Amino acid sequence: MLISPELRPLLLREARALPLLFGGYAVEWPGGTLVVNERVPASRFNFVQDVRLGPGRILAFVEKALEHYYQRALRPTFELPHDLPQPGTVRALAEAGYASLGTDRSREVLLREEGELPPPDLRYRVGPVSEEDQRTFLGFFAEPRHQMELNRYLEEDVSHPHPGERTVPYLAWRGDDPVAVALFHEEGPVRGIHAVATEPRYRGQGAASGLVTEILRTESRPPARRWVLVREGPGVPEPLRPLGFNSALSFETYGLAAHPHPPERAPG
Q1: Closest by alpha carbon to 101, among 246, 251, 231, 238?
Q2: Which of 27, 125, 173, 221 could form a disulfide linkage to 34, CB 3.0–4.6 angstroms apart?
């Protein structure tokens, strides 16, 4: 899917919203953006986004980026656009111990075209997360040792957002069971859906797509906004196609999977 040059920075900004909402920050350098979250030393919160390096600048960038993370006892990943071959960057990353993590760890930024939504899936009850259920929400994608810290940021994001910004965690229930979660985020002309996750025993039963459908239905109010969904994994999952999502940006992820790495720091 072709996107305009004006739209690309907006999509990239929304693609790094999740770690920033939970206490992280971004440093924009020529050649890529460093997304850093010292509170949560996990790869989905610490990565070098949209790496685009020209010959003669590769080694300096890679070394400087790794130094920034390693000084903070973090192990980052690097995201290289699928549509831009960079053999020199791949070689430099390999010399630093990095290799592709495979298609299952690729990063996709999906953009929704306007269109009718399918009817709601009445098997699931979907709504914003109550204060009592915030830890349940976080349990779907965060380790227990990080949940207390993340819960503090989530409360601030929901109750005291920055001007022009809005964050709503959503939870889908089937009976009394919480079965899927997603985080809605709105800023400027973009509405984003992040951290979509499903309870393992309910996967493949339409819980996540039903949840996303209800978020689209609930949050699609004037004025018109661009809808973005950020996910790990290749392409567009079949259940999301009827919702109008297509791949707008696609990245191959490189990680230091087979080598020792700096120890993780506990949040706080």
Answers
A1: 251
A2: 27
How far is residue 176's CA from residue 195's CA, in Å, rounded to a whole number?
22
Among residues 189, 207, 155, the alpha carbon closest in space to that of 23 is found at: 155
Residue 205 has pLDDT above 80, yes or no: yes
What residue ranges in 124-208 does DSSP mark as E strands? 125-128, 165-174, 177-187, 190-198
Residue 253: strand pairing partners: 79
**Quick one: residue 242, left, alpha or beta (phi over 0 = left, psi -120 to 50 = alpha)?**
alpha
DSSP state of 206: T
Return d(Cα 61, Cα 51) in angstroms, integer: 10
Which phi and psi angles does 111 have, rounded to 5°?
Answer: -120, 135
Among candidates 206, 192, 166, which has minimal Cα distance to 249?
192
pLDDT tens readout for residues 190-200 = 999 999 999 99
DSSP summary character for residue 108: E
Report how far residue 29's alpha carbon sits from residue 260's, in angstroms, rounded to the nearest whole number.
27
pLDDT tier, 142 (very low <50, low <70, confident <90, very high otherwise): confident
Closest C-alpha to 111, from 14, 24, 184, 215 = 14
For 125-142, give the DSSP string: EEEEPPGGGHHHHHTTTS
CA 6 to chain centre: 21
Among the listed residues 171, 231, 230, the one whose alpha carbon sits nearest the alpha carbon of residue 199: 171
Sign of CA dihedral 21, 250, 30, 48: positive
Confidence of residue 258 (pLDDT cuts 50, 70, 90): low
Alpha-carbon distance of 208 to 35, in angstroms, equals 27
